[in-house]
Amino acid sequence: MSSSSAAASRAAAVAVALLSVGGFLAQLPVSDGHAYMMTPISRQLGGTTPFNQEGEVPVNFCPHCYQSRGPAAIRERSGDKPWPHYKGARAANGNYLESDEVAQRHGICGDPEQTAAEGDNKYGRENYNYPVLGTYAEGGVLEVKIVVSTYHWGHVEVFLCDTADLPEGEDSIVTQSCFNDYPLDRAVDDEFNGPIDPNYTGRFILDPPCRASETDQDLLEGAYPGDVATARYQLPEGVVCDHCVVQMVYYTGNSCKHEGYADFNPESWPSSCAPSKADWINEVVGQCGDGDAYPEEFWNCADISITSDGGPGTAPRTAPSPTPEQEEYDDGSTPAPSMKYEEDYDEPTPSPTMKYEEEYDEPTTPAPAPVEGGDDDSSSMDGGDYDEPTPAPTAELEPATPMDSPTEPIVATFAPSVPPPVSDHSDCEDPVGAFNQCGGEGYDGSTCCRAGYECEEMAECYSECRPREDRCSEGWGQCGGLHWEGPECCWPGAECIERNEWYHQCVPEGAVN
Asked: Where are the alpha helices (DSSP H) in 175-326?
């Protein structure tokens, strides 16, 4: 199947899934991942079972796990430099900005997934691999719905890239400098979804968990479950595109707080269950980027078009043919590109299903948008210093079960930690990591899982290491709260803290002041 026909069939599969899938993913247990963008439909959600034809692409069972393997791996790729956004470059609306060089610390859309091999790249390939799944009106409102499986405080920022502006052409790989051209502002009438900081008009402070009892919790049919948080963003005037890419970045705030949090004191917060700043912003931690404080970050991308009236755009483009230099497998597909980092890593096992370039050149960086903040202007973002309206698709929705509203303020209390459960496979020499394959048709690898996980059949052809029901939560995982049915203990090195009556969290020792 060619790249263009594969993209077209995926678009058709998404349309069918939105209207008719029986909620396969809604029956799966929530994993240790954290958040993904549901609308506009992200590449991550588009990679899950309901949105794919059988055997078309590798199924993504964890759309909310795209944090580029976490802070330790991200920092290692950067050459062990501190978090780049501390006193770093800002857009005029306060959004964090990265040059293309600095952005090499992570996959442009969050790859690799948290348990994937270094260099794995599902969603940062050439744009022709990903179909446009929504159409919006020029200058209209982009409603962003984020599904949160594990609440880690913090905020979301949203960017837009018109692929026609990419130096290598609209079918090439999207770049951070292209996203920097359009850091989106919250819509002016969006205060009911969350207060807007006048100094950071692109920020959406993530809803506290109890807000799920107060807000629209409808999920797209088949979407992976979690609490739904909604924010409305303003699309820029004058931007019309056959293929634009939306980037959502979730900056967590459980291990450190972000610049501007301390000074943001709105008159009120739009919630009866979370009426105070302490319910929305965690201020008992240090500053992100100060010293070794490096927050967990998540990236998602979504493919949309923008027309003058919100109607259908031009016909999809055909994908370019592979270049003569491409190495091909026996089935005609080409190996995945390794992301260009400052150090070399082992090549991951390539996916034999989608056509894309074996390697890509460093993108040519266009002049970034004007910035405010930092010691220098935008022309100095070279990565060396770190001081630094409605979408077209509609769906038949099924509301989530609302929770009762909490009444007590946040109280920090500590519960004892207990050791994690031991592995069922004491003689296992090669345990499979969390959320990796451990069985299925044609699989010949290890079938035992790391401690705390067990091999669970997800489909007849695929089994995966999933958390055991009796395992303890790892660092920053949930460990209690009303209606919580998961583990109430923490792995060694973390303590269970009562954030409020609805949410208790395993906090690593030394992370709380």
From this structure: 176-180, 277-280
Largest separation between any pair of C-alpha atoms in the chain:
65
Rounded-to-integer distance, Cα 263 and Cα 203, Å: 14
String of DSSP letters for 50-105: GGS-TTSS---S-TT--STTHHHHHHHHTTSPPPTTTT--BBTTS-B---TTGGGG
Q: Which one is the CATH code of 1-397: 3.40.50.970, 2.70.50.50, 2.60.40.2340, 2.60.40.730?
A: 2.70.50.50
Given a contact cutoff of 8 angstroms between Cβ atoms, the answer to whether 325 and 347 are in contact is no
pLDDT in tens, 429-439: 888 876 668 88
Cα–Cα distances in angstroms (integers) from residue 27 to residues 223, 224, 293, in the given order: 10, 8, 36
Q: Where are the alpha helices (DSSP H) in 237-305?
A: 277-280
**pLDDT tens digits along 207-256:** 999 999 999 999 998 898 999 999 999 999 999 999 999 999 999 999 99
Give the residue from 161, 84, 89 showing the smallest Cα distance to 130: 161
Residues 6+ apart with CB under 8 A from 372: 90, 91, 92, 94
Interatomic CA distance for residues 182 and 205, integer angstroms: 20
Listed by start position, the domains of the chain span: 1-397, 414-508
Q: Cα angle at 59 between 57 and 62, to 5 degrees?
A: 140
Positive or negative torsion for Cα 27, 62, 271, 275: positive
- Give the start-end residues of each E strand in 204-343: 204-205, 227-234, 241-251, 297-307
Q: Beta strands 297-307 and 135-137: pairing type? A: parallel
Answer whether the bond into residue 348 is a cis peptide, omega within 30°: no
User: What's the token pair of residue 481?
Assistant: 């709260």
Looking at residue 511, what is its pLDDT?
58
Residue 68 has pLDDT above 70, yes or no: yes
Nearest Cα to Cα of residue 174 among 28, 21, 300, 39? 300
Place of tokens 């499986």: 149
